[in-house]
Amino acid sequence: MKVGVLGCGVIGLTTAYFLESRGFDVNLVCSDLPGSSSKANGGIITVSFTPTPWPGLASILKALMGFGGPLAIGPRELLSVTGLRWLLGAYKARGGRVDVIKALASRSLQLYKELLGRLNVRYLQGVIALYSRSESAEAHVRLHGGRLAYRDEVEALGFKGFEAGVVAEDEVAVDPLELLRALRSTLTSRVLEDTVVNVKPVGDGVEVTLEKGGSLRLDSVIVALGAWSSGILEELNVRIPLKPARGLALRLRAPKPPVAMPAILEDYGVVVSPVREYLTIVSSFFELKGFTLGWSEGRLKWLKSVLSEHVPALRDARFEGYQTGFRPCTPDMLPVVGELPGSKNIYLATGHCRLGVTLAPVTAELILSRLQGVKPELPVDVVEIVSPRRFIG
């Protein structure tokens, strides 16, 4: 079967890898989209820390008024019908399907154990979530498990100002750029450096029109263009409520690892991941401001102040650059994976929001199972819940 995978982020590359390994004739279409979210994240692959409650009204009001913190909402989101509908849907859902996310992440972590070894990608074992108050860490353990670590152990890891943390010993972190390079270099598929203009069913297959001219005739197509998937879907008269949630990843160089374990600073929405002995990735922010790339000095100052207070070894680290990423987020914070109703042989793999790296292998497995007509290693209800059908009547 001749299959097209549109998109070269972590979802597209992992899907292409899985399909190719099962003998599919894969055509990979890549374009260097500004703000690829696969490059702008901390690279933490987690099950324990996937649940993120939607913020309360007080936090949303602060975000609208421009106060500090990881969340920011542009006024245009409130002035547009689609933006307001998305926000209301997100507030109503409040990240409620923790069971679905954890089922997906658990299977993905299992797949990663084999995948990272085959790709020869380095990874760090163990992740900690840090809390300013020990009561929050203890509540997390009661709900989601993990091992409690109190102030002395947290400080020994290199973090200051936290009463407690929760350690997930079996979870890992990678350098997302290294993962992307490894996936890309392993593929033997045909790769087209081009931008997709249009996708449409033709007979028993699918035609993909390319910006540089020409087109591809394929048996099936997987749209894995992240937040840019919406443009292709609109050409098909399909409306999936995807919003680009803007995030930032800093790459900092220090002579030695500033911390001993990748961490999520839960009260700040900041990830600190020492991916190599000299390189630390810091990622943060969840901003609904459309496809804008620039960052104000105030936002960068807030992030620097958090790092200065809580990760003192990073104060003298050398800044190597940053990457802006647009996470493709649905109101219910669940991915959209499966065949598009009414569009035979066109599949969607997007909507992973802040869990793109975590959920890449399970997404690829879901797509593979659909194409092969076999049952995936997931509960049936989970497969149905993440299907595009929930947005398309």
Explain this structure.
Helix content is 34%, strand content 28%. The chain is of the alpha/beta class and 393 residues long. The mean pLDDT is 90. The strands form three sheets. Strands 3, 4, 5, 6, 7, 13, 14, 15, 16 and 17 form a ten-stranded mixed sheet that branches. It has helices at residues 10-21, 57-65, 75-79, 81-93, 98-119, 134-144, 151-156, 176-186, 229-235, 297-310, 356-372, 380-385, and strands at 2-6, 25-30, 44-45, 71-73, 124-131, 147-150, 164-173, 190-193, 196-202, 205-210, 215-218, 220-223, 243-253, 263-265, 270-273, 279-288, 318-329, 336-339, 346-350.
Ordered list of secondary-structure elements with their pairings:
Layout: E1 2-6, H1 10-21, E2 25-30, E3 44-45, H2 57-65, E4 71-73, H3 75-79, H4 81-93, H5 98-119, E5 124-131, H6 134-144, E6 147-150, H7 151-156, E7 164-173, H8 176-186, E8 190-193, E9 196-202, E10 205-210, E11 215-218, E12 220-223, H9 229-235, E13 243-253, E14 263-265, E15 270-273, E16 279-288, H10 297-310, E17 318-329, E18 336-339, E19 346-350, H11 356-372, H12 380-385
Parallel strand pairs: 1-2, 1-12, 2-8, 4-16, 5-14, 12-19
Antiparallel strand pairs: 3-7, 5-7, 6-7, 9-10, 10-11, 13-16, 13-17, 14-15, 15-16, 18-19
